[in-house]
Structure formats: C-alpha cells, structure tokens
Amino acid sequence: MQQSNLSTKIMGVLNVTPDSFSDGGAFLSIDAAVAHALHMQQDGADCIDIGGESTRPGSEPVSEEEELRRVIPVIKALRATLSIPLSVDTYKPAVAREALQAGASIINDVTGLSDQAMLAVAGNAKASVVIMHMKGKPKTMQESPVYKDIVTDIKDFFRERIAQAREAGVTDLILDPGIGFGKTLEHNLVILRRLREFTEFGFPILIGVSRKSFIGALTGGMPPSERLEGTIAASVIAAGNGASWVRVHDVQECKRALLISDAIHNA
C-alpha cells in the first residue's frame, strides 16, 4: 500500500518479547522482527515502535541487560533496512541511550519521563519523546484506579512533565494519555470522547487502543486476536477527536479506515 497524506499517522507495533498480551513470542528472532517491520512499512506505517519489555497489566519487569539484548540488534538491523523512523518503547534510560545510538530517533516512555536520567538522555540526544500517562506500575496499575476527573488529572500530569522536559532541553514531544494504563473501562471511553482537550498543549496526541482489553470488554469478551473491528473503530474516533498518531498492530486495516475517515473530515 502506498504512503498517503493522512492527517493521522500510524505507529506500527513491534514487540520483541515472549509475553506481550497480543503477539508475545511472534517476533523474537531478528529475521522475524525485520520481516514484520518491513511488512508494516509496506502497509503504510509512518514509524515502527520497538519494545523489549511487556507492559501489559500484571506484567513482570525484565532486566536492563535482557531488554538491551532483545531490542538493540533489532534496531540496528531495522535502521539498515527501513526508510521510516524508529521508536524505542522503554522507560529505562540506558536502553533508550543505546537505542538512540543504534538508530532510533524517538523514545516512547510509558512512565512519562518520570526518571531524571531519562530526561538527561533525551535532552542530550535531542530526541523526540512520547510522554505517556500511567497510574502506578504495569504489575498493579489496574487495581482499582481512581481519579477526581480523568481528563483534568491527566492534563495536570502533562503540564508538569512538559515543564520538566523543556527545562531539560526536550522540546519535540508527543502526548499519550495512556489508554489501559491504570484506567477503568469508563476512564478509557471518557478519554477517547474528550481527547481533543489534550490538544491545548500544542503537541501531537498519540493514542494506543490496539487490541486492548476495553475492546474485549465491549465485545463480549473477545480475545486480542478478534479485536480488529474494535481497534479500527476506536482509532477512527480518536483521529476524529484530535489524535495525530495511532499506535496499532494491524497497520494496513487501520490505514485504510483512516483514509476514509480523513476523506470525510477533509471534504
């Protein structure tokens, strides 16, 4: 599929993990990871996001050494093969630093630059950074998360982290409200409905709804492999409500849906 001029860009998911909630173990070898990334680029991805540690609810962290072993060879191989930017999905400063040196240009930090060392890495490299909101840690984040007002609370978080990032010299930011990261079903739906409120900061908004559990909950308990239609619907709604990026597993299908959505919005 040819690259298009979509208003909303596609970030393709590449998990080089044995335990990710949807595709764990599918792309552990370098050859399999490169082939899948090439396929996503051909399908119209604008960026590939490489992750070496699962952050699904209840997941256990992996060591820095293990995460480096998983992601760095893949990033090096992809940089020599792909023409689109690479993002590293990590909250570990050492992994981010080595990934940038290996060819990544974006840090996708699920902890939202909570580590001062990560701020330093991003600032020194002049890297782009996705600041994601997460309440708690992956292992415990879904244990009864509570907010006063979900959107207001996340905006307060963004306001604080944006200020810290600017102080560290990090100015190329993307904001991700963190669907499914310390949020109930209702929280996720409210975020998507009120998504445009986050555009007040003047930075692109990224939304990751792909195959997530709230889609399963709304479709009678469908497993991740059967959540494509829900992913497309939520991604199109997010795009219409102000998302500049959607992070998805199914690039071709979501790209085609967004082509139609864009055409209608731009008519």
Account of the protein in words:
Strand 3, helix 3 and strand 4 form a beta-alpha-beta unit. Helix 1 packs across helix 2, helix 2 packs parallel to helix 3 and helix 3 packs parallel to helix 4. The protein is an alpha/beta fold. The N terminus is likely disordered. 42% of the residues lie in helices and 13% in strands. The radius of gyration is 17 Å and the shape is globular. Strands 6-5-4-3-2-1-8-7 form an eight-stranded parallel sheet.
Total number of helical segments?
9
Low-confidence stretches: 1-5
Shape, principal axes of CA atoms: globular
Mean pLDDT comes to 92
Please give the share of residues in helix. Answer: 40-55%
The H-and-E topology, N to C, reads as: EHEHEHEHEHEHEHHEH
Radius of gyration: 17 Å
Strand order of the largest sheet: 6-5-4-3-2-1-8-7
Structural class estimated from helices and strands: alpha/beta
DSSP summary, beta strand count: 8
Percentage of residues in DSSP E strands: 5-15%
Gap between N and C termini: 22 Å
Largest sheet features: 8 strands, parallel
Characteristic terms for this protein:
267 residues; alpha/beta; 8-stranded parallel sheet; globular; disordered N terminus
Compact summary:
By secondary structure, this protein is of the alpha/beta class. It is built from nine helices and eight strands. The protein has an eight-stranded parallel beta sheet.
